[in-house]
Amino acid sequence: MSKNQKTTTCRGYLSKADTYHERFFGMKPLPGAKDGWLELTFPSGGSSIALHQAAKSQKSGVAMKLVFAVKDVQVFVRESEKEGLHFGAVHSADGFEFANAKDPAGNSISVSSRGL
Question: Which of 18, 49, 57, 92 has the highest local Cβ count within 10 Å?
Fold first, then answer.
């Protein structure tokens, strides 16, 4: 299996990103993190993400959303709410569900059962 990596710029939270992504999505930081750059992966392998600190001149988050695949969106949303991660309504479309949220810095994220 080849490694998939998505790199995105993020607003002001890289110092908290590793604990946020580990707490809610089970991701672990990879070695080599430095100021303004953080790579995270799932312990089981597969995809990883690289978070790059956005420039101070960037006024809002990037026009992209990180989407995490979960088998049961409603259960994930309910359990995450107990831990302080708040999602909007769960939407159903063409046989899958999804819900949207913001990370601690206001960057868009989503959980989806599409393809599972």
Answer: 49
In this prediction the pTM is: 0.69
Please give the C-alpha separations between residue 49 and each of 35, 38, 59, 82, in angstroms, as whole numbers. Answer: 16, 8, 22, 25
Is residue 85 helix, strand or coil?
A: coil
Alpha-carbon distance values, 107 to 43, 46, 78, 100 (Å) = 24, 23, 20, 11
How far apart are the C-alpha atoms of 68 and 47, rounded to whole Å? Answer: 10
Residue 11 — pLDDT band, cuts 50, 70, 90?
A: low
Instruction: State the DSSP H helix or E strand holding residue 48, giving kind and residue range, or none if neither.
Output: strand 48-53
φ, ψ dihedrals at 17, nearest 5°? -65, -40
Domains of the chain: 5-54+61-112 (3.10.180.10)
